Amino acid sequence: MPLTTAPSAMIVVKKDGTGQTGSMPQDRAQNYLVEIVTKRQMTEKVACVKQALTQAFDGGGKPTGKYTFQGHPVLHASSGNGQKSATLFFYDNAGTLMLFAMGGHDTSTKYKITIYGQKGTDFAQGKTISI
N or C: more exposed end of the chain, with fewer CB within 10 A? Predict the structure, then answer.
C-alpha cells in the first residue's frame, strides 16, 4: 500500500543484514546512498539515486506486488532506465522509510538487485524482482 503521508526519515538496513544506520533526514540519506554507489564505481547512477530518493521521501513509493520484507509490504521508487537507473526497495515503519535493497530496471516490469541486497531473501544481490 502506498504511503499516506510523506516520511520524515530513513534508516538503511545494511547489506546482508550487517546492521543498520541511525535515522537520517533526506539530505543525510542522500549523501549515504550516493557514497554507496560511488564506492561501487556506479557513478552513472548518482542522479537516479537522488531522484528515486526524492520520490520516496515525497510519499511516491509504489507497491511491489506480492513481495514482503520482514513481514512488511515492500514499496519501491525508481528513476531512469537500463544501466542508468536506480530503484530503492523499502517499507514504511510509522513514517520512517526502511531501505533494504537497491538495484535498477531490468525491463519495464522487472528490477534487478545490483547495488546491494539481503542474502536469503527475494532481495538478495543478483536477484530479479518481477512486478
Answer: N
Does the pTM surpass 0.85? The reply is yes
Beta carbons within 10 angstroms of residue 51's beta carbon: 16
For helices 26-39 and 46-57, give the axis angle rounded to 10 degrees: 150
Cell, residue 91:
517499507
Residue in 120, 124, 112, 65 with CA at minimum distance from that of residue 87 = 112
10-40 per-position pLDDT tens digit = 999 999 999 999 999 999 999 999 999 999 9
Mean pLDDT, rounded, of the chain: 93
Cα–Cα nearest to 77, from 93, 58, 67? 58
Q: In degrees rounded to 5, what are phi and psi of residue 94? A: 55, 50
Cell matching residue 70 = 520482514
